[in-house]
Write a structure and sequence with these properties.
The complex is a heterotetramer of chains A (255), B (291), C (319) and D (398).
Chain B lengths: L1 H32 L6 H17 L5 H24 L8 H22 L15 E3 L2 E3 L1 H23 L1 H11 L1 H7 L3 H27 L9 H10 L5 H22 L4 H15 L14
Antiparallel strand pairs in B: 1-2
Chain C lengths: L2 H18 L2 H26 L7 H19 L3 H23 L6 H19 L9 E2 L4 E2 L2 E2 L3 H23 L2 H11 L1 H6 L4 H27 L1 E2 L6 H14 L4 H17 L7 H15 L9 H20 L1
Antiparallel strand pairs in C: 1-4, 2-3
Helix pairs in contact in C: 2-6, 2-9, 2-10, 2-11, 3-4, 3-5, 3-9, 4-9, 6-9, 7-9, 10-11
Chain D lengths: L3 H16 L15 E8 L6 H20 L7 E8 L4 H14 L4 E3 L4 H14 L3 E3 L15 E3 L5 H15 L4 E7 L2 H17 L3 E7 L7 H9 L4 E5 L2 H13 L5 E4 L8 H5 L7 E4 L10 H13 L1 H4 L6 H20 L5 H9 L24 E7 L5 E9 L2
Parallel strand pairs in D: 1-2, 1-3, 3-4, 4-5, 6-7, 6-8, 8-9, 9-10
Antiparallel strand pairs in D: 10-11, 11-12
Helix pairs in contact in D: 2-12, 3-4, 5-6, 12-13
Classes of the chains: A alpha/beta (255), B mainly alpha (291), C mainly alpha (319), D alpha/beta (398).
Chain lengths: 255, 291, 319, 398
């Protein structure tokens, strides 16, 4: 579904990602792990079009997206969340989700200005769907609360709902478990598994929290110093000596 | 022909160093506090009026009058920071910017009412009699502007590169949270930037005003300084100086080789072209925001 | 207070004014209305969209001059020419946005500043448009009647600016407004959700240009003369100040800001040459103590009632 | 239940109804048995305040003096000052306020072309007598409106004509350079200079422009150097003109400078510096505000006592002087209109003024089709030590 071929990213001579290939299959949860500075977030930014790869190519559903603008990548079914959450703080929760739905419930300026039925119908439908999505993640009772006032765990969840609102085929989650408490992590795991199994979503998960990664991932890719170390099932990864070396800090020499 | 060209260049460079003097301070405030200071031109004007006031009504001689002007202007910068900028610190950036517009108007209209709308004579710091070198006339008092802007830029450069305090300010500008962790209070750096830039305003004014005629509307020239800062990329002090001088030269050339009617249109058109085709300014490389 | 109630208040003032107000007050209300409508364009691009445009007076100029020149040279009646002129102004706004909104929105402030300068100096040197001397604005005719009485001009301008304000208000409360606000709060999140920031912001700039050109032309019917001095960078900056002082999140802020800058100077006129000094001192104080603009007083009743109801709920819970 | 549509309908109907209502001003509005209400309208704040504050001080002084002397035909003057804030919309608002709300009989002002010219249609349509002393756009009196008079100052059409005549006379090469401000002021002046030069014939000229906020004029002056002009006309505000004056000398251009009346403030030569020596400017009268003429000395002393705050700013200036003269002319009109004062009789009385002297500015003359009180000027020259003197000779535009 998503395929990275030999991606290289350089900033001012500094190589952040070096020759990384990766593929995410439909309907799987794919985890991307690695120590700090391994280039995980850079990969997400490349996939979503915020950075352009210096070399290599990026395919989504067999089409190259390397030169596509960010918003078109999102519209083609690839949506992300952010490491430090990027909610629209002044908006209510439901408005946040409605921004995600904006493209689905399109109406023209004219129909708003002339008060045509189309805008009212679409606004209503969007609000309804947003509410249903909030229900799915069991946060509908916060619908009218200002997003900026929510506790961190809830904000993450709102961000996931907002991403779902764009009807993605592949969800990119940038450290969704960072800063969450134990029971929140368990709930998160449940949600992600549900999304995969019920909606058939593919998920690319970037995280260090092993409680998440190891519990739900179908496959795992490990990066270190911007290089690909290994890809495989959770069990394969656990027993891979290169991975162990990478985490223990001694695997610089492996290519 | 060659003399004409050199004379033209010289005129452009002098006018450009006026713009550069202003651009330096605008860039300083913008980088340090995130605010575009629309009051700067009026601060510059007010600084000179303090000088004039000290001379004409307090009977001081030039040197102490200059000192008073610079100090009063610095105190005014302190007042701006404490009374206006600090309370507005967490607001959308447009609000402190509009506050500077209002502060500028307070100064301009206050001075107009108190010192009158007519021009005041300001003492020249250097002679206005030109030297003629090979058909080109060079005026010492004009060179004072160029000299001052170069000196100020060098001083600022030295201050930020070689003093601990300057380094601290730079660090705080680049990363307020980080600076806080290291123990540099964020408020202190913005305060010192406001004081510093306000003192620069008075100095710039005292150098510029004798040559441009002191009226309450002299601050309008800051628009050109702003344009110069844009041309230089709005990020670096050397960029501001080069931007200012370049703008002056463009104006002079357009005024002579195209027509005086096209002078401003040409320079603004260059500005638009720069922004559209080289949005980070002529002298900066693109930077990437970390997510 | 509910949005609708505020609108009713404006409508009530506009409609009842002819019955109680003299010509002077009527004229001032007309100026407030047109100024507010001009500023409402800025509310859309800056207050809602978070971008700074220093070109509003340039858009006003383009609208005014087009309408007047269409009338003088092609004989197109003003009331037909003004919408055409507003469209021209909008097209220019669109082009400007298209050129400079490719990348970061911050460049808009700089490009519009330069653009304001270019338009001002172009007008000054354009002899067909009266050049520096300016142009008298032709009178409006409607079905063959010359509408030049103060009352007729009041009605025309207030209706036109009311429509502009109403349209911009609707736009702000539509999905366009929502997405623009989203872009202001987190550009990166909005773009990652599929929001096309470039086309959206370009449209917003074009719309603000239309508002400026349209309402500005009607203001010129009141002022009766196009003087290039009315269209400088300084006047563009002034429009921004009006927006912020009134409140930059809604069109009500534009109306309040315009009213302040029209009525407060008259109230302070006894100060003579010190008037503007005191006025801007007050404005500075206003900005510091009410940074959300004076329009935020409209939210006070709502906040009080919410506070009361929250107290009430808590009591119920306790009981 | 009233729906939104209903409210809009009601609103629309009310507007139409209101549109039918109009107000009429009476011929003697603002005149009572013992009072005449006069509005003083001018720019007290903003870029054009130079002229507005002069209009206010000169007007105030003249009105106070006549009141102290017992008033006009048994009536005291009551004056109301309104600030037009250097803005055209505010000028019209101020005018409407004076006429509609303050119910004044006549208006003394407005004071700048940027405000005054946009107001002309409103002023002409109102029928209220308007007396201008400060701004110089020829449009104010040409075509003449029944109720708009101007005196003291020199309009830009006349000034352009006089300048052209004068510089042609003093130019030995019959080649003139013109540096003009890019705005309305400079443009109107230059148009008229050029028109008159063409009228005279056999004169070469070159025209360059600059902005009021410019600081460097090298490019324009170098273009002028390419021509063989020996006289330079500078038509612009004091601040840029001062730099032009200085740079001409610094570039050693062999030009005799002749500035417009804007370059004649008392401190002007000092702002230019020693380069001002020898420069000439138009001046709308033969009396300098710092001069020793009897009436001027009287005026200056009274002014300094009445406005110590302004005296500190090296005033009175020409603007105060012209306003004082203008207000005295208006007072003379009111006096001659007699006890039976109406707008019609005031206009008739003003039209009857011929060579009305105040000893402060050039005599005012009006007529049934003449609304411009002063149509002649003098030339002032800056001497060594930066003092100035009026050169002999009066130059008339008629």
């Amino acid at each position: 579904m998503l395929e990275l071929r030999n991606i290289v990213v350089r900033f001012d001579g500094l190589v952040a990602v070096n020759d990384v290939s990766l593929d995410v299959k439909a309907g799987e949860i794919h985890a991307l792990i690695g120590p700090n500075g391994a280039g995980k977030s850079t990969i997400i930014n490349v996939v979503t079009g915020l950075y352009r790869p210096s070399e290599g190519d990026c395919f989504f559903q067999n089409e190259s997206i390397s030169n596509r603008p960010t918003h078109l990548i999102a519209r083609s079914g690839l949506t992300r969340t952010f490491q430090n959450t990027e909610l629209f703080a002044d908006f209510s929760v439901i408005e946040n989700v409605m921004v995600g739905l904006d493209h689905e419930y399109h109406y023209g300026i004219v129909s708003r200005l002339l008060n045509l039925p189309r805008w009212r119908r679409n606004e209503k439908a969007a609000r309804y769907e947003a509410f249903e999505l909030l229900k799915r993640l069991k946060i509908e009772k916060f619908a009218e609360q200002k997003a900026g006032t929510l506790p961190f765990g809830l904000r993450r969840r709102v961000e996931i709902v907002r991403a779902l609102a764009t009807r993605p085929k592949l969800l990119l989650l940038d450290e969704p478990a960072a800063g969450l408490r134990h029971h929140e992590i368990i709930e998160l795991n449940q949600i992600l598994v549900e999304l995969r199994d019920e909606l058939g979503l593919a998920i690319l998960l970037v995280d260090h929290v092993m409680k998440v990664v190891m519990a739900i991932s179908n496959r795992v890719t490990v990066l270190n110093f911007g290089r690909h170390v290994a890809t495989g099932s959770v069990r394969e990864i656990r027993s891979n000596p290169d991975v162990i070396a990478a985490y223990l800090g001694g695997a610089g020499g492996h290519a | 022909m060659v003399e004409t060209f050199i004379q033209l260049m010289l005129g452009g460079v002098i006018a450009g160093s006026v713009y550069a003097l202003i651009a330096i301070s605008l860039v300083l405030i913008h980088n340090g506090t995130g605010v575009v200071n629309f009051a700067f031109g009026d601060q510059l004007m007010a600084g000179v009026y303090v000088l004039v006031f000290s001379q004409h009504f307090l009977g001081l001689s030039l040197a102490p009058a200059v000192a008073i002007a610079v100090v009063v202007s610095g105190l005014f910068g302190l007042a701006i920071q404490f009374l206006v900028m600090a309370p507005l610190r967490n607001r959308p950036v447009l609000i402190p910017i509009v506050a500077t517009i209002a502060i500028g108007a307070v100064l301009r209209e206050g001075i107009r009412a108190f010192m009158g709308p007519n021009a005041w004579p300001v003492p020249f710091l250097l002679s206005t009699s030109p030297y003629h070198i090979g058909g080109v006339s060079i005026v010492p008092s004009d060179l004072a502007i160029l000299g001052t802007s170069v000196i100020i830029m060098l001083c600022l450069y030295a201050f930020f590169e070689f003093t601990k305090y300057g380094q601290a300010i730079l660090a705080a500008c680049a990363n307020p949270t980080g600076a806080l962790i290291v123990g540099i209070p964020a408020g202190a750096t913005t305060t010192s930037i406001w004081i510093l830039s306000s003192m620069l305003a008075a100095i710039a004014g005292i150098v510029i005003a004798p040559l441009t005629t002191l009226t309450p509307d002299i601050g309008l020239i800051a628009i050109k300084g702003f344009a110069a800062a844009v041309l230089g990329g709005f990020a670096s002090l050397p960029g501001a100086v080069v931007g200012g001088v370049l703008l002056g030269i463009i104006e002079a050339m357009a005024g002579y080789y195209i027509s005086s009617a096209m002078k401003d249109i040409a320079s603004y058109a260059v500005l638009v072209a720069v922004i559209v085709f080289r949005p980070t300014g002529l002298f900066n490389r693109a930077s990437i925001r970390k997510v | 207070m509910r949005d609708g109630l505020v609108w009713m208040l404006w409508l009530a003032i506009a409609v009842s004014a002819p019955f109680f107000a003299g010509q002077h007050l009527l004229y001032n209300i007309g100026i407030v209305a047109t100024t507010a409508a001009i500023v409402s364009g800025l509310t859309l691009i800056s207050g809602v969209g978070g971008l700074i445009s220093i070109a509003q007076s340039a858009f006003v100029a383009i609208g005014c001059y087009c309408a007047v020149l269409l009338n003088l040279h092609l004989g197109i009646p003003m009331l037909i020419g003004i919408p055409i002129a507003a469209a021209v102004s909008g097209a220019v706004g669109w082009l400007l946005g298209f050129l400079c909104l490719r990348l970061d929105g911050h460049f808009l402030a700089l490009v519009t500043l330069a653009f304001s300068g270019i338009v001002h100096y172009a007008i000054i040197n354009l002899d067909i448009a009266g050049g520096a001397v300016g142009l008298a604005v032709p009178t409006v005719t409607l079905f063959g009647f010359v509408m030049d009485s103060p009352m007729a001009i009041y009605v025309i301008t207030v209706v036109a600016s009311g429509l502009t304000l109403w349209f911009i208000g609707l736009l702000i409360n539509s999905r366009y407004g929502r997405v623009l606000r989203a872009l202001r709060q987190s550009e990166i999140a909005a773009v990652s959700l599929g929001v096309d920031r470039r086309s959206l912001r370009t449209m917003a700039l074009a719309t603000s240009a239309v508002a400026g050109g349209f309402a500005g032309s009607f203001q010129m019917l009141q002022v009766t003369y196009l003087d290039p001095h009315q269209f400088t960078i300084v006047s563009s900056v002034f429009y921004i100040a009006i927006m912020v002082v009134g409140g930059m999140r809604s069109v009500h802020g534009a109306i309040i800001g315009a009213a302040i800058f029209v009525f407060v100077p008259e109230f302070l006129s006894g100060l003579e040459t010190y008037m503007a000094f005191i006025l801007f001192l007050l404005v500075t104080v206003f900005i510091v103590i009410m940074p959300d603009g004076l329009a935020s007083i409209f939210s006070v009743p709502g906040r009080i009632s919410r506070w009361i109801s929250s107290r009430f709920e808590r009591k119920n819970k306790n009981a | 239940m009233v729906t939104r549509r209903d409210t809009l309908k009601i609103a629309g109907a009310a507007m139409v109804l209101a549109a039918a209502k109009t107000t009429y001003a009476a011929e003697n509005t603002g005149v009572t048995d013992d009072k005449i209400r006069i509005g003083i309208l001018g720019d007290l704040t903003g870029f054009a305040a130079i002229w507005g504050s002069g209009n206010l001080s000169g007007g105030t002084m003249a009105f106070e003096e006549i009141n102290a002397a017992g008033g006009i035909n048994g009536r005291k003057l009551e004056y109301i000052s309104v600030d037009s804030e250097s803005s055209a919309p505010k000028g019209i608002a101020g005018f409407k306020r004076l006429v509609d709300q303050e119910k004044v009989f006549a208006i003394f002002g407005p004071t700048s072309s940027a405000v005054g010219v946009p107001m002309l249609r409103t002023m002409a349509g109102s029928g209220v007598p308007i007396f201008i002393s400060a701004f110089s756009s020829p449009l104010a009196t040409n075509p003449p409106s029944k109720n708009i008079f101007r005196s003291g100052t020199l309009n830009d059409a006349d000034q352009g004509k006089i300048l052209a005549n004068y510089v042609t006379r003093i130019s030995s090469k019959r080649s003139i350079a013109i540096m003009r401000q890019s705005d309305e002021y400079g443009k109107t002046g230059a148009i008229n200079v050029v028109a008159q030069l063409k009228e005279i014939g056999n004169v070469k000229f070159i025209e360059e422009q600059f902005n009021a906020s410019d600081t460097d004029f090298t490019s324009q002056l170098l273009r002028i150097r390419q021509s063989d002009a020996d006289v330079l006309v500078v038509y612009g505000y004091p601040a840029p003109s001062a730099i032009v004056f200085r740079q001409v000398k610094q570039l050693s251009l062999p030009l005799q400078i002749v500035g417009s009346t804007a370059t004649t403030s008392r401190s002007y030569a000092a702002t230019v510096g020693k380069e001002a020596v020898g420069a000439r400017s138009m001046f709308p009268t033969k009396y300098l505000p710092e001069g020793a003429d009897v009436e001027i000395v009287k005026f200056r002393n009274a002014f300094e006592v009445r406005f110590p705050d302004l005296a500190r700013q090296t005033r009175p200036e020409a603007t105060d002087q012209m306003a004082y003269h203008g207000a005295k002319t208006l007072i003379e009109g009111l006096r001659r209109a007699g006890r039976d004062l109406t707008r019609e009789t005031l206009i008739k009385a003003l039209e009857g003024l011929k060579n009305f002297e105040t000893g402060i500015a050039n005599a005012s003359t009006f007529g049934p089709d003449r609304r411009e009180g002063n149509r002649s000027a003098y030339v002032v020259e800056v001497k060594e030590g930066l003092g100035r003197m009026i050169l002999p000779g009066e130059y008339s535009a008629i």
